[in-house]
Amino acid sequence: MIMPGAGLLFLSEFTQIDFRGFHPDDPFPEYDTYADPTNPRVRYKIICDIAKREGLKTLRDIYERISSARGHFEVTGTPEQIADQLEEWFVKGGADGFNVIPPTFPEDLNLIVDYVIPELQRRGLFREEYEGDTLRSHLGLKIPENPNAKKREKVTTTPSSIG
Questions:
Q1: 56-106 residue pLDDT tens
Q2: Region annotation Disordered: residue ranges (predicted)?
Q3: CA–CA separation, 59 vs 90, rounded Å?
Q4: Is 58 helix (H, G, I), strand (E, B) or coil?
Q5: For residue 144, what are the CA distances in angstroms to 19, 139, 148?
Q6: Does the predicted TM-score (pTM) go above 0.90?
């Protein structure tokens, strides 16, 4: 349960539309109400799409739905069910990777690491070994030359040139 004032403030900050003077049970306004061709308010549009798809009607419905995942795709279920959903998105080209935002830390992150990742590895969808020691090497990228690095001239000294 989210306190109404906190929910309306979150929704205001998230959408860049001031909902603080509204009542939590007021209807969520349609996208066209606040559409602005110079500022499309992408997050607001995403939330409107979620509201229509899931039948959410009030501001309270919306802030309670999006507060945990910030309007992003949420996956819940058993490790196998979660792996099924991630696999479907990946195989159908809907995603090439995922950012994980566990509801609690470290408890829910540990559940993902201990149960979901092994299931994804069993399916061949998550690596078991890394390619190298850096992100660049994991992605198979070469190390670029530093254009700002000065090339040092090789200096040699001989006993006669010292002192």
A1: 999 999 988 887 665 567 788 899 999 999 999 899 988 888 888 777 778
A2: 141-163
A3: 32
A4: strand
A5: 48, 14, 12
A6: no
